[in-house]
Amino acid sequence: EVQLVESGGGLVQAGGSLRLSCAASGFTFDDYAIGWFRQVPGKEREGVSCISTSDGSIYYADSVKGRFTISSDNAKNTVYLQMNSLKPEDTAVYLCAALPPWGGRWYDGDEYDYWGQGTQVTVSS
User: Fold this and answer.
1) Which of 52, 59, 111, 118 could cross-link to 93 by cystine, CB 3.0-4.6 Å?
2) What are phi and psi of 79, to 5 degrees?
C-alpha cells in the first residue's frame, strides 16, 4: 500500500525553525519527485517545494526561497523540509506528495499521484 507520512509539525514562534519529514513507502521512491504543499482552510493549496529524488533537481516557491531547504535521504525513502525564519503566514497544514515522472508543473497539486495526511505547523507572532 502506498503511504506518505508527514511528521515534525508543531508550534513555534516567529523567527524559529522546524524540520518536517515525509516517509514514503509502497512505490518506487526514485521514480518520483516529492513535493511539499501547504493548505489553510478556505484558501488555495500552495506548492512550497519539490525535489527529484533521482537527479536532485530542487524547486521552491518564491515565498520561501532563502528560508526553507528541501532534501532527501533516498536510502530511507524520506524527504525533509527544513524551515527557518518562520513567519505567521507560514502557518498551515503541510502535506507531502509524490509526482510521477510524466508529471508536469511541480507546483500543481493536481499532477501528483499520492498524498500524505499532513502535519500542522503553527507560527505565533
Assistant:
1) 118
2) -115, 140
pLDDT of residue 102: 74
Scan for cell 519539490, then name that residue: 50
Q: Are residues 81 and 119 in contact, defined by beta-carbon separation less than 8 angstroms?
A: no
Q: Compute the average pLDDT of residues 28-35.
A: 90
Tens-place pLDDT, residues 61-102: 999 999 999 999 999 999 999 999 999 999 999 999 999 987
How far CA 105 is from CA of 2, 55, 72, 120, in Å, comes to 22, 16, 20, 25
